[in-house]
What we know:
With 155 residues, the protein is mainly beta. It contains one helix and ten strands. It has one domain: Immunoglobulin-like.
Amino acid sequence: MKVLLLIAAVMSLSFVGMESTTTQPTENQTEFNPTNDWQVFGTYDGITVEYKEAEIQRKHWSIIVVLFKYTNTTSSDLSMTFKRSYYMDGECRNCSKINTGEHTFTVEVPANGSVEGSSSNFKNELYVFNRFTKLVPGMDDSQLTNVEFLDVEVK
């Protein structure tokens, strides 16, 4: 009986270490208002997330996006995993499918380094669409009004 209790105790302790915790930002932006300059979006366990607006031009189209910059303020490499919801004209466009995996992102940020979106570093976790610069028939004229990072985990 003592052996069974010991085994049960060891197994329950091993599962405690496997729990994931969701991080809330220690610093958060007061209002989502992209400009051409980096602004703090939030700080999550050693990673500061900033955002700014930028135009991305390609041969046949041009769009405005919001770029993200992830800065690791620690001396250890960190990985940040999160879900990102986005709102167009005040309406959440992906909230009903936020748990499908399509809106879950991971960013690896080196110790005391940063990873940022740009026209040459255009990965999904580094930007979100804001609006078209020129509308043609059939295009939607809505624009990005808010972004939320959900279920943030930093390891």
